C-alpha cells in the first residue's frame, strides 16, 4: 500500500491552504474531504486582509470579493458604535472561496478523495487512516483540518468532545437593499450575537451564535428570530425587509470554544480543529489560513532535514501555534463574556465611544499582522 508523505483530513480553508502550500514541493499529498465542492458552510464569511498577500503569493485569485473597511457594533438596547478597521477585510462566501482554493489545488496536481475519515491510528512511525466506506490510507505526516468537531475527535478522545457545549450557529443569505458594501456589523441579542456582511454576489450573509438553552424555548428558527433576535433594533430592521436566499438556514450545534491541543496523537491540527475563536472577533477564517501556513512550512522543513525528527516538528508547531494565537483566543473569550452581559456591554460601548484608543486596542488584540509583506 502506498505511503503518502502527507495526508490532510478536511478540505476547508485550513486543509485546502495547507495542500496548496505543500503542492510547491515534490511531496506526495492526499487531501480527504467529506463533501463535494462547492457547498455552503456555517461561517461569518468575513476574511481579514492580513491573509491577502499570502493568498496572492499562492496564486489564488478571489472572484469579486467585497472590500470591507468599517466595523459596526450594537448592544441589545441598540447602543451602537462604528469604527474603521485598520487592515480591512473581504466579504466572500465560503461557497466561492473554498471552491476557488479547491480548483487551485487540483491545478497543482494534489490528489483529492471524497469521504469521511472515522479513525486515525499511529503505529511504527506511520499513520493509518480508515474511512467510513472501508478504505485505508497510510502517511508519514497527518494534518487535521476537519473543522469544529468530528467523529474523529471521539476516536482521538479529545477532552473538549466529552462536554456538551451551549452554542448553536445559524446561517443564511439574504437579499436586502441599502446594506453598505464596506460594512461588517456585529449585533447582540439576548443570549447571542450575529454578524452581517456582503458577499461577492451582493447577498448579505447573516450568521449568528445562540445559546442553545434559550433557543430550545422556541418552536423553530423563525420563532426564535421573531421573538429574540429582533429584540435588537438593527436586526429587527434588517429581517423585516430582507428576503432569504436559502430554502432554509443551515445550522451547526455543539460548537465548543474550549481549549484544544494543536498536536493530537502526533497529528498537526489546523483551523477550528486546533482552536476556535469567537465570531465576535471576526477572524476565524484568517486564523485557519494562517495556521495552515505555519503547519505547511514546518512540514517542509521536516522533510527537508537530513535527519527528520517528529518530536521537533510537533514541538515547533505547538509552540508557534500557542505564540501566534493564544493571545487572540483569550481576548475573544473575554470580549464575548463582556458583550453577552447587557450591563457590561453598554459600559464597554460607552467607554469605547469616549476613548477610541480602547476600541483600537480591542481590534488589535483580535487581529494579526499581514502574513507576508
List the helices and strands and how they pair.
Blueprint: E1 3-9, H1 13-22, E2 29-33, E3 46-48, H2 52-57, E4 66-74, E5 80-91, H3 94-107, E6 111-114, E7 117-123, E8 126-131, E9 136-144, H4 151-156, E10 167-175, E11 183-189, E12 192-198, E13 204-211, H5 212-215, H6 221-227, H7 233-241, E14 243-244, E15 250-255, E16 263-264, E17 267-269, H8 284-304, H9 310-339, H10 342-354, H11 356-366
Parallel strand pairs: 1-2, 1-9, 2-6, 4-11, 9-17
Antiparallel strand pairs: 3-5, 4-5, 7-8, 8-9, 10-13, 10-14, 10-15, 11-12, 12-13, 16-17
Helix pairs in contact: 1-3, 1-8, 8-9, 10-11
Give a structural overview.
It contains 11 helices and 17 strands. It has 373 residues and is α/β, with parallel strands linked by helices. The strands form 2 sheets. Strands 3, 4, 5, 10, 11, 12, 13, 14 and 15 form a 9-stranded mixed sheet that branches. A hairpin with a 2-residue loop joins strand 11 (183-189) and strand 12. The mean pLDDT is 88.
Radius of gyration: 21 Å
Report the biggest beta sheet as strand number plus sense, adding barrel if it closes. Answer: 9 strands, mixed
Number of strands: 17
Count up the helices.
11
Q: Helix fraction? A: 25-40%
Distance between the termini: 42 Å
* Mean residue pLDDT: 88
Shape: globular
Oligomer category: single chain
Ranges with pLDDT <50 over ≥5 residues?
none
- Write the H/E string, N to C: EHEEHEEHEEEEHEEEEHHHEEEEHHHH
Beta percentage is: 25-35%
Amino acid at each position: 500500500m502506498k505511503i503518502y508523505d502527507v495526508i490532510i483530513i478536511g478540505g476547508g480553508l485550513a486543509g485546502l491552504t495547507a495542500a496548496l502550500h505543500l503542492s510547491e514541493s515534490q511531496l506526495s499529498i492526499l487531501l480527504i474531504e467529506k463533501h463535494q465542492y462547492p457547498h455552503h458552510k456555517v461561517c461569518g464569511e468575513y476574511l481579514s486582509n492580513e491573509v491577502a498577500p499570502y493568498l496572492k503569493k499562492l496564486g489564488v485569485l478571489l472572484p469579486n470579493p467585497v472590500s470591507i473597511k468599517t466595523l459596526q457594533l450594537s448592544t441589545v438596547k441598540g447602543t451602537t458604535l462604528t469604527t474603521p478597521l485598520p487592515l480591512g477585510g473581504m466579504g466572500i462566501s465560503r461557497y466561492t472561496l473554498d471552491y476557488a482554493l479547491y480548483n487551485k489545488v487540483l491545478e497543482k496536481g494534489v490528489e483529492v478523495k471524497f469521504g469521511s475519515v472515522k479513525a486515525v491510528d499511529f503505529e511504527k512511525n506511520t499513520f493509518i487512516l480508515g474511512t467510513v466506506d472501508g478504505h485505508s490510507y497510510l502517511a508519514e505526516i497527518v494534518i487535521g483540518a476537519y473543522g469544529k468537531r468530528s467523529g474523529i475527535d471521539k476516536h482521538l478522545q479529545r477532552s473538549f468532545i466529552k462536554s456538551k457545549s451551549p452554542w448553536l450557529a445559524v446561517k443564511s443569505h439574504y437579499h436586502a437593499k441599502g446594506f453598505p458594501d464596506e460594512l461588517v456589523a456585529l449585533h447582540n441579542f439576548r443570549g447571542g450575537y450575529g454578524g452581517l456582511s456582503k458577499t461577492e454576489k451582493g447577498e448579505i450573509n447573516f450568521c449568528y451564535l445562540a445559546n442553545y438553552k434559550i433557543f430550545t424555548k422556541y418552536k423553530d428558527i423563525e420563532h426564535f428570530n421573531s421573538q429574540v433576535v429582533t429584540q435588537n433594533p438593527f436586526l429587527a430592521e434588517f429581517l423585516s425587509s430582507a428576503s432569504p436566499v436559502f430554502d432554509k438556514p443551515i445550522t451547526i450545534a455543539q460548537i465548543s470554544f474550549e481549549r484544544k491541543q494543536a498536536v493530537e496523537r502526533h497529528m498537526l491540527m489546523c483551523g477550528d480543529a486546533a482552536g476556535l475563536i469567537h465570531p465576535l472577533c471576526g477572524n476565524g477564517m484568517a486564523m485557519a489560513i494562517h495556521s495552515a501556513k505555519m503547519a505547511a512550512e514546518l512540514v517542509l522543513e521536516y522533510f527537508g532535514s537530513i535527519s527528520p525528527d517528529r518530536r521537533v516538528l510537533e514541538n515547533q508547531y505547538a509552540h508557534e501555534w500557542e505564540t501566534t494565537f493564544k493571545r487572540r483566543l483569550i481576548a475573544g473569550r473575554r470580549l464575548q463574556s463582556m458583550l453577552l452581559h447587557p450591563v457590561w456591554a453598554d459600559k464597554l460601548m460607552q467607554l469605547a465611544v469616549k476613548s477610541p484608543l480602547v476600541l483600537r486596542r480591542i481590534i488589535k488584540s483580535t487581529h494579526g499582522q499581514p502574513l507576508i509583506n
